[in-house]
Amino acid sequence: PGLLLVPDFPDGGEPSAERLRRQRVCLERLGRPAAPTDVRGTVQVLGGPGLKEVTVRYTFNEWLSFVDVPAAPLPPDPPAERYGFTLCVPPSLREGSALHFAIRYRSAQGEFWDNNGGRNYTLRCCGCPGGGPAPPAAAPP
Predict the structure, then answer these.
(1) Which of 11, 15, 66, 68 could form a disulfide with 26 if both were Cys (CB 3.0 to 4.6 A apart)?
(2) CATH annotation of 3-121
């Protein structure tokens, strides 16, 4: 209780057509605010014919281990296809911890990543104002 996952990267808004064309996959947006129990978001991919797979790779331990979760197709927004994802966050996450993630798109055209320009996307676990126990009431004068 009282913790939030706060993006540690600038919110660039909607991915640009140029960025999508160059990378073929882009983080579209994260749900706000990210709760300490799960992180939800959407991804845009520059689709093509054939089978496609979109996954989000994430870690809580600086990449000592990681989890790949599939993203599910959403209604398209031409020329891009859209996918939604949910990352489950362990209850043991503490203030100061970080969740790092990157997005992978595989298709007949190859494998493509959106890893925030090589820095990965990072969410920091922070205390939120008003999220903890109420302060003791002041004694009347």
Answers:
(1) 15
(2) 2.60.40.2440
